[in-house]
Specification:
About 75% of the residues lie in helices and about 0% in strands. It has 14 helices and no strands. The longest helix is centred in the N-terminal third of the chain and has 28 residues. The radius of gyration is 19 Å and the shape is globular. The two termini are about 25 Å apart.
Length: about 325
């Protein structure tokens, strides 16, 4: 049955991967300015960690429900997790939702949208390093290594302040540092999806891990005194629904692409993620000056160049 689906939809064709991965990256790129706009609409201060976690938790709880609801409508029955998948769902929820978005949401509240968008681009390189060195799904070639070095060099340059040795790096651990840590857990979750997709349906796993992780984040936020009661109205609700749609659509499509393609062939198109993120942050957050600074543009070029170098080997062999 899987082979028939693979032939009819042709999820391994470069055109399909490009279009679907590009759509995912646009959604993810828009998430950075959307989240920071949400902090403003819900009047959440950067120091109010528990309200931040509640904001994230409700988003992913709703996203998971949307995924399962849509999948159930397609199947004509309510979809339940497969037997024996409980521990795997917990592992995926811990890495993909709880830990990744704890660090990302808290980090983004202490960093600009431009910085957050560019750092998010490192998930491409971290994913390849994890897939090659830890999970052994593919080989780490010299070209992939050079691409990773270029990408991380871009992150270093982005944070150079030019203010002398005392303030050589314009970076905070709670801000850019947390956003970078989030990309580590993104890479881990991507590798786990690749592994678990051999046994279980990736759409079902994505939906239930979102609900599980979202419920955990919401509970932590609530127990810690977090609240979204200050929400001003319909605009905030629409934005929260849009953020839920981002997760429901993007992660479902991305997970399906990872199932039928090598990790690097999918993640390489992540260069569009920071591009969309920087442009949309400049447009909606008013960060034009930072987005088009020499450091930010150089970093963006290096990150995109690194991703191209990583993918060049694949293009030659295909």
């Amino acid at each position: 049955m899987e082979k028939t689906e693979k032939r009819s939809i042709n999820l391994t064709s470069m055109k399909a991967v490009l279009l679907l991965a590009g759509f995912c990256c646009f959604l993810w790129g828009s998430a950075t300015p959307a989240i920071k706009t949400g902090y403003s609409l819900f009047q959440i201060d950067s120091s109010d960690t528990f309200s931040i976690l509640m904001f994230a938790g409700i988003r992913f709880l709703l996203a998971g429900f949307l995924v399962i609801l849509y999948h159930s409508m397609i199947k004509g029955r309510w979809i339940l997790p497969a037997k024996g998948s409980g521990m795997k769902l917990c592992n995926l929820a811990l890495s993909q939702t709880i830990l990744q978005y704890f660090f990302f949401y808290v980090g983004l509240s202490h960093a600009t949208g431009v910085h957050g968008a560019i750092i998010t681009g490192t998930n491409v390189f971290i994913s390849i390093l994890f897939a090659s060195l830890i999970f052994r799904y593919e080989k780490l070639t010299s070209q992939k290594l050079v691409g990773c070095i270029l990408g991380f060099a871009g992150i270093v340059i982005m944070n150079l302040s030019g203010a002398g040795t005392d303030k050589l790096f314009e970076m905070s651990f709670l801000g850019e540092g947390f956003v970078l840590l989030a990309q580590v857990f993104y890479a881990i979750s991507g590798a786990l999806i690749k592994k678990y997709s051999r046994e279980y349906d990736v759409v079902t796993m994505s939906g239930y891990q979102f609900m599980l992780g979202g419920a955990a984040l919401t509970a932590i936020g609530f127990l810690g005194g977090g609240t979204l009661a200050r929400a001003p109205g319909i605009l905030a609700a629409v934005l929260l629904l849009y953020l839920s749609f981002i997760s429901a659509a993007a992660y479902t499509i991305w997970g399906i692409l990872l199932k039928y393609n090598p990790v690097s062939r999918v993640t390489v198109f992540g260069f569009m993620n920071p591009l969309f993120g920087v442009v949309l942050s400049a447009a909606f957050l008013g960060e034009k000056e930072q987005a088009f600074s020499v450091n930010a543009l150089t970093a963006l070029v290096l990150v995109c160049l690194g991703i191209y170098v990583v993918n060049k080997e694949k293009q030659v062999k295909s």
